[in-house]
Amino acid sequence: MGLSSYSLLLLLLVAPMAEAAELRVLSPTRADCADLAARLAREPRSRQDTLRDLAREGERLCQAGHVRAGLARLRRALRAAQQPSGNRAPSAADLPPALVDGTLAAR
What we know:
single chain; mainly alpha; 6 helices; 63% helix; elongated; signal; UrcA family protein
């Protein structure tokens, strides 16, 4: 079954765009954790107990080699610190139980 001239033309037009839109996926590193922690430290609201605890947990996870989980905590703390003051900060009640008692790091 051959390609019609329309299909061939469409393929020739789309192929270069697919190459140009190629994404590069980078693995998160501990340097990413440090960068995010530094950004969070510059936020005035980052000194709230719940945000500070969430950031510490993120840094601890990063140091233990759980970079993705650590970055997730740091991002959550940064988002909460950047929210208008009317919104509440995340608490331990917002996290799955395995994360609250620290069993994630043991896995």
